[in-house]
Write a structure and sequence with these properties.
With 507 residues, the protein is of the alpha/beta class. It contains 19 helices and 16 strands. An eight-stranded mixed beta sheet has the order 1-2-4-3-5-6-7-8, sandwiched between helices.
């Protein structure tokens, strides 16, 4: 493991998972070996995670002065790591107690913070606290779990003489959204991996000056994400909101069904939220309670153009042509629900995507935008043009579904092995609608009153081309252009795709 020497000569160790831009990660406990962070549920696929073993923990050396275990005295360790990594500015993540260290570092070195992520952290550094009584009440959310009576009895038996490692073992079932095999395995060595004398010193007298810290972070311009778990007793979702409110660019994300270790309870949900926040090219907006990720390119004030991907894809599917489109448009490429970095709430279908696309356009003030959509997204786009024509200025449909009943119907699709970049439930929901579409979707085609271009991929496409001809005939004034490229025209023949858009007057 790589090491460096910090301000007082103590040799500290860290490990790196993944590749790309570094994300410095501070472990909680307090004073627990950073190994429990792992790859943060797969976040290492998006960033290089730099996991610091705090002084005296993991592979880091024990300091000569035990007083340096105090939280504020570890700020220098974070700064020494930043300098060692050669980073001008740092993306910093602190979990649980280490959220205090991350906040103190941001207060002391605001010019060094590019972004800050606080995960499940009761930030005493900002003056927040939770009493034992409040924690006891909060964990009653688990009262219907089969393990609760035994765990509750043990919890009620904790006294002032109970050793801290035993307190950890008793309380730990209440720290996860599900006390299942994965949670038990993750929690197994927590007591052993914590330096308890250091944990006692971490929050020691003099560690915090909340009023001064609040003033300092009140001027922090960097974006801050506060992640809370729906079932976490400390911080509760309400406390997470209070923490976020201390930062001018603070936002809160409450992960459904999660406890104090959200990357264990639902790795995909955790990674999507944090990866979207950390990616400078990704923004988020909430539509009907669903958090949607999207990418923006092009000059502000230019005519808006919305890109809508196909099934199983994401905003990244348009990467090859976004630059050309952004030359004279403000381009918004959305991840529909269940795709990319957006939430996976269920409730999928062409009608759900239609409503979501409309909500996205309204939420961002893009009424009258040109909408360029592919496959599944194209179906949702022309359903929107039927229902809310004022939202769409021009419509480009690449290989859209015709919504004619399939004969024979599509069989039930078998889920591939391994991780997917989208929610497999989308396949079953949309296949059912393609087999037996709502007749109103075809009946409403004459109501589409916006200029419409349909791009067909020719005989190598799986979409029957005669259906696209019929679709163009049913939409008043629609133009049909064939580019023999198969189903993925914008990817396979991007030059011809863009030329067709230019001729249509879109770009």
């Amino acid at each position: 493991m790589p090491t460096f020497t910090t301000y007082d000569g103590t040799e500290l160790s860290y490990r790196v998972y993944g590749e790309g831009e570094p994300l410095v990660c501070l472990a909680g406990g307090p004073m627990r070996d950073a190994a429990y962070l792992g790859n943060l549920g797969g976040l290492a696929a998006h960033r290089a995670l730099v996991l610091l073993d705090a002084r005296g923990t993991g592979a880091s050396a024990v300091p000569a002065d035990p007083g340096t275990y105090r939280c504020d005295r570890q700020v220098g360790d974070v700064e020494a790591l930043r300098a060692h990594l050669g980073l001008e500015r740092v993306d910093l993540l602190g979990h649980s107690a280490a959220g205090n260290l991350a906040v103190l570092y941001a207060a002391a070195h605001p010019e060094r913070i590019r972004s800050l992520v606080l995960v499940a952290s009761v930030t005493r550094a900002l003056g927040a606290a939770i009493t034992d009584e409040e924690w006891d009440r909060a964990v009653r959310v688990f009262a219907d779990r089969d393990w609760y009576p035994e765990a509750r009895a043990a919890l009620d038996g904790i006294g002032p003489e109970t050793p801290l490692p035993q307190v950890y073992d008793i309380a730990v079932p209440f720290s996860y959204g599900r006390w299942d095999a994965a949670a038990r395995a993750h929690a197994a060595d927590g007591a052993r991996a914590t330096r308890w004398e250091a944990a006692v010193a971490f929050h020691g007298d003099g560690a915090y000056d909340p009023a001064a810290t609040r003033r300092a972070v009140g001027a922090l311009t960097a974006p801050v994400l506060v992640v809370g778990g729906e079932y976490d007793a400390g911080p509760t979702p309400a406390m997470a909101a209070e923490t976020a409110a201390h930062f001018p660019a603070g936002e809160r994300f409450v992960q459904p069904g999660a406890g104090h270790y959200p990357w264990i309870d639902d790795p995909d949900a955790f990674v999507r939220a944090v990866a979207a926040f950390l990616d400078p090219d990704v923004r988020t907006v909430t539509v009907d309670g669903v958090r949607l990720a999207y990418r923006v390119a092009g000059p502000e004030g230019a005519p808006p153009l919305v890109l809508v991907h196909g099934r199983g894809e994401s905003s990244g599917a348009w990467k090859g042509i976004t630059g050309d489109l952004a030359a004279d448009h403000r381009v918004y490429a959305v991840d529909l629900r269940g795709h990319g970095l957006s939430d996976r709430p269920g409730g999928y279908g062409f009608d759900a995507f239609r409503d979501e696309l409309g909500g996205f356009i309204e939420a961002l003030g893009l009424t009258g935008a040109t909408v360029v959509a592919h496959s599944m997204g194209a179906g949702a786009a022309y359903l929107l043009a039927q229902r809310a024509p004022a939202l769409v200025g021009r419509l480009v449909l690449e290989e859209p579904p015709a919504f004619l009943p399939l004969d024979p119907p599509r069989p039930v699709a078998e889920r591939p092995e391994g991780l997917l970049s989208f929610d497999w439930g989308i396949v079953a929901a949309t296949d059912a609608q393609l087999n037996a579409p709502d007749p109103a979707w075809r009946a409403g085609l004459p109501a589409i009153g916006v200029p419409t271009l349909i791009l067909a991929g020719g005989p190598s496409s799986h979409v029957p081309q005669e259906q696209l001809t019929g679709l163009a005939d049913a939409i008043p004034g629609a133009r049909l252009v064939t580019i023999e490229a198969g189903h993925l025209i914008h990817r396979t023949r991007p030059t011809e795709f863009l030329a067709a858009l230019r001729e249509f007057g879109t770009v």
